[in-house]
## 1
Amino acid sequence: MSELIPVEPNIWNGRVDHDGDSQLTQRWHQKIKPYTEHSGSSGLGLLGLACDEGVRRNHGRVGAAKGPDLIRKCLANLPWNRNDDLFDLGNVHCQDGDLEGAQTQFSQTLVKALKEGMLPVGLGGGHEIAWGSFKGLADFLTQEHKTPKGLNIGIINFDAHFDLRKPEKGASSGTPFWQVAQFCEHQGLDFHYLCLGVSRSSNTPALFERADELNAAYITDDQIHRDNLDFLIEEVTCFTSMVDHVYLTIDLDVFPPYQAPGVSAPAVRGIPLDITAILLHTIKQSAKVRVMDIAEYNPEFDHDLRTARLAAWLINQLTDQPVE
Ligand SMILES: N=CN[C@@H](CCC(=O)O)C(=O)O
Ligand SMILES: [Mn+2]
Ligand SMILES: [Mn+2]
């Protein structure tokens, strides 16, 4: 049975500064509170999926289950740049290979966080987190609107891979967006999926064909460069304007291997971080991001927490609200 377990408090450690107004010297580790139901406060809600069963089933290099706590360690010391609260909802631990149970537990916890008014940030774990995140958002919106017809969710996935595989023996880290496409078909909904940074050398032509059949939008890694910036911003803006809600997911294997060695399936080329930052800013400006997550962090292959720091930096980019 998969279980939601609070994190050890000693994960949230860091420097304490006294040189200035105490409101302006806060770091994440000083803001974090464990989540208690009906806390009545909005803010960020961190929720880990300590699971590598999806990667195992997808024949990848396991180790991602230890990812969420190391991303927290790297978040701990970052400066806090928001006016609201920060909650740790804990980790859903996938036990005895119960991936489907873990995804269900994850999505149910996400629904609670969304009902509280939080912006949930998922910490992976393999990319099976995406089905849990999408399903949690879809269930929440269905309950809010009393009907699934009001769901107009766009998924933006930064990833070297489409993750549109058809499940063989159950779901895996390679199947989440196929599962979403199936869900949309059953509910009579459009499937809105934009995959950024997908690599021709990491996906077979069959997977490109499947993306086309499903009307998925994609931009390949070699198209993501500065000379193409206007086009990239236009594509992202056009996609976000088409939907009411955005679920944003970043698979760390979309970055070059020297920036993100700690993943199951490293890219060779990867997309540039400076362009990614601009695109993330564009997505953030849409004010439609309801759920975000970081996937595929695998500490077994990381060096000096380089990939975990990158994950924390991405979360900070997406959530900070500096005074302009
Ligand atoms: N999460 C996705 N993983 C990739 C793995 C590719 C590989 O192991 O080489 C995929 O299924 O395409
Ligand atoms: Mn992926
Ligand atoms: Mn990937």
## 2
Amino acid sequence: MSEILSVENLSLSYGPLQAVRQVSLTARAGEVVGIVGESGCGKSSLASALIGLPPEGARLSGAVRISGADLLAMPEEGRRRLRGDRIAMIFQDPMSAFNPVLTLGAQLIDFQHRSALSRRARQAKAEAMLARVGLPDPGLAMQRCLHELSGGMRQRAAIAAALLVSPELLIADEPTTALDVTMEAQIIHLLRGLRDEYHGAIVIITHHLGVVGELCDRVYVLYAGEVVEEGTADEIYHNPRHPYTEALIACDPAHLAPGSVIRLPVIAGRLPDMTRPPEGCAFAPRCARAESRCHLQPPPRVQVSDSQAALCHRVAP
Ligand SMILES: Nc1ncnc2c1ncn2[C@@H]1O[C@H](COP(=O)(O)OP(=O)(O)OP(=O)(O)O)[C@@H](O)[C@H]1O
């Protein structure tokens, strides 16, 4: 499988605040890769760096390669072209992909402006894609403005818009958080169906480990801006080795028997102050298994299988 996305030692900081620290990851053609972590661990900052659009004032280092081309090393014009041609993004707020006062049809046709197809063919392709993502009566939906569509329909339209340009890399940043549970299940089902026919790489960024377990091939667990564990979805979900991954799983609603809890458990403690990251393991202050070396020395990256690795003093190879 060819590597579509290759990230090497990527760091992003806002002044003294280190939001993303030395992240390395890959996504190959046909693969769905999940990046999971709780709020504030650096997911959005990482997502912005993956598309070469960091927030103003952020400082970036490292490499983000899209099919070999280093996004961070090229001038803005090159990045813009790459984003338009080869990378598409699905945001939590589907409205951010659209102009609210233009019809959906006009926008879906315009998104294909680089295509050699006629206007009529682009229209037909847009309608077919809307049907594919489950919009009832796509012909009618094409004539509607976005504010006339329901939240679920907008999210489906945003997915259709992203796929219309056949991107090599599709990045979904918290694609389901804004939706209710039933709709979330439908969207997951849809993305799962699409992965079999879409041959690019899909990267899904979420705080919800259940999404990752159901949808992804491989998972990276992010804590305090670092990848603390990586592995296949099966390894991460059923045989987590990092205490933070274990804690995330214990908090996941999918692991709780229906009706058994009133409030979701949360991981006790809070993220460290990232303007002064701890000298040892960043998770040690919240870790029930921490020993003194965990507080003093940076943890080693321990390879536990061909595909699984954890950043932890307590994990045996
Ligand atoms: N534009 C910014 N300027 C300064 N600090 C920022 C900026 N954006 C994010 N941060 C800080 O960087 C850290 C990581 O934030 P980020 O939004 O990337 O995390 P996240 O995991 O996406 O969180 P959430 O799920 O709540 O969006 C946080 O401490 C946050 O306060």
